[in-house]
Amino acid sequence: MAPLNGAKADGTIRVSVKRKMFPAVGDREPQLVLRDVEFEVAPRSFLVVTGPSGCGKSTLLNIIAGLDTDYEGAIDLGPAKDQMTFIFQTPRLLPWRTLYENIALVLPKGDPRHAEIPAMLERVGLGQAVNAYPEMLSLGMQRRAALARGFILEPEILLMDEPFVSLDDPTAASLRELLMELWHGHPTTVIFVTHDRSEAIQLGTRILRLAPGKASVVQDAVVNLTDTQRRDRTAVLAEQNRIFSS
Amino acid sequence: MAPVSTRISSAPRPLRAFGSNSTIERFAWMAGSLIVFGLFWQVLADILQNRYLPTPVAVFEVMLREARNGDLWKHTSATLWRVAVAFVISMFIGTAIGLALGKYKTADKFFDAWLILFLNLPALVTITLCYIWFGLNDTAAITAVALNKIPNVAVNMREGTRSLSKDLSEMAVMYRFGRWKTLRHVTVPQLAPFLAAAARSGLSLVWKIVLVVEAFGRSNGVGYRLAIAFQEFDVVTILAYALTFIFIVQLIEFVVLQPLQARVNAWRR
Predict the structure, then answer these.
(1) Shortest CA distance from B16: residue in chain A
(2) Inter-chain touch A127–B167, beta carbons under 8 Å
């Protein structure tokens, strides 16, 4: 995790994964997951890493987050590395703490943002569930609570691993809308992993495609959509065809 | 939005509190079934008219007599004190061993055989050996009880530690919980059901072994009193002391352990 040479203190994230292997398990041979995956992420941009399952995108995110340290290469998160937040594929709320307590726990003691927790929960549509335990709520509601927990920190870097997977379409759509809204309220450098192409186009300012077998980046494209166009199905579909057909 | 935030802004409270309803109902069931048991006993004793099966009324009278002359309190308090000390020691040491074995695989592989050895060591063996090695004193008595209970707690807590969620510990790392917050809000709540189970099974095991220890080599306590009564074939006294202690243990179970378990499980659906 040593900083790369010539790193500027401008908030650019530099990722360089030379080699990432999965060790042999049982009969399976050791497997090369990522090779020479190198890219930079501009501050305040919304990068989507996409590709089919098994292409190594979640592994890449875990490496960037520092959860996986068994790889060759270097990650430089820049000066904001201590203000990084990870939103997991599953909500990972503490089931024995209420939603309020779950969010309060990520804030330091005496932090003035404690007072904002109810408003934040209200914002994600959980105003009535402030004192509920997570397991009393639906998965969609738990996901929203997990988003609120991530956003209350107003992170400089936000890593998200398929946070809307296995939700019904309307719920996922409203959560994406919410994410865009929150991102506009507090612009953050986002790295977002998904296998859903239309989600990738709708949210991202830049797309990075990984392919299984290649173990590397196969496409790096900029999404040319305005915020209004992102809410327009046909515009999203056209952009999706343009990027993914090339 | 305003009314909602004012309602919760001061002190957040869990939605569900364990209501008095379930407590009253539990108590009614317990009292009812005990009364039926007492009636059955009384009728059986009346029919048999045997001096080795006294009626519950006779037992109760002896209880009152022993309570008045101070013997009942003298012996039960001595036993209670030993139970408390042995219980606390076994829970502490057993939990520490269980956590270590659950966390470190090599230690677990090595000490697993020891654990099985101690789990299967008869209480009678540890008790006699402790008295022979350490003398007929309370240190030996409590050591013997603890040695019987520790492996039990350790096995329970080892299972608990093995089942700790990796997902949640990753979450705690990512959200910078730090050591203390992680222990208090992530680790301990996951271990709580295992602790509660170990405590409940522990209490009943510990008090039974304490009685044996007292019968063998102490000069006070319920176990000692039972041993004397046995020499005189004094069934009324045996029952009077046994029932008193069962009552106390049930009270602890009912007033302390069960509500505690209900509380740590309040978040479950």
Answers:
(1) A132
(2) no
Domains and CATH numbers, chain B: 54-264 (1.10.3720.10)
Nearest to B185 among A86, A94, A149 (CB): A94
H helices of chain A, in order, are 57-65, 99-104, 117-123, 139-151, 169-185, 197-203, 227-230, 233-245
Please report the residues numbered 97 through 136 in chain A whose beta carbons come closer than 8 angstroms to any beta carbon of chain B. Answer: 97-98, 100-101, 105-106, 115, 118-119, 122, 127-128, 130-136
Instruction: With both helix axes pointing from N to C terminus, report the angle between B222-231 and B235-252 in degrees, rounded to the nearest 10.
Output: 160
Backbone phi, psi, residue A108, to 5°: -65, 160
Question: Looking at beta carbons, which residues of chain B come within 8 Å of A86?
Answer: 174
Across the interface, whether the CB atoms of A92 and B171 are under 8 A apart is answered: yes
What sign for the dihedral angle of Cα B167, B173, B176, B178? positive
At A52, which amino acid appears? P
Domains of chain A: 13-93+154-245 (3.40.50.300)
Q: Is B185 on the interface with A (CB under 8 A)?
A: yes
The reported pTM is 0.75
Q: How far is CA A36 from CA A86, A189, A206, in A?
A: 24, 22, 19
Span B24-37, pLDDT tens digits: 887 888 889 989 99
User: pLDDT tens digit string along A137-169?
Assistant: 998 899 989 989 998 998 999 999 999 887 788
